[in-house]
UniProtKB/TrEMBL annotation:
GO terms for molecular function: nucleic acid binding; RNA-DNA hybrid ribonuclease activity. It comes from Compostibacillus humi. This is RNase H type-1 domain-containing protein. It holds the Pfam family RVT_3. InterPro entries: RNaseH-like_sf, RNaseH_domain, RNaseH_sf.
Length: 78
């Protein structure tokens, strides 16, 4: 299943697409985990770089989570 992942961190997006190498051992472990999960779930990722201004909602949600503010969501599928 193709899925588009958007982010405003150029380094992260370029590392996940393979354009840039990841030299930090701890970050490389996270990349391996992400790639493994995507493969297991049958997800074909497309990573898209957004400007920080275009990514305000995601930035706000991440900031709330880091402050310990509980976030809830529901999704309906057919």
């Amino acid at each position: 299943m193709p899925v588009v992942f958007c982010g405003d961190a150029q380094v992260v997006i370029n590392q996940l697409t393979g354009e840039w190498p990841c030299y930090e051992e701890e970050l490389a472990k996270w990349m391996d985990r992400i790639e493994s999960k995507l493969e297991k779930m049958g997800i074909q990722p497309e990573f898209v770089l957004k400007t920080r201004n275009d990514n305000k909602e995601a930035d706000q949600l991440a900031s709330q989570a880091l402050r310990g503010i509980e976030l809830t969501s529901t999704i309906e599928t057919d």
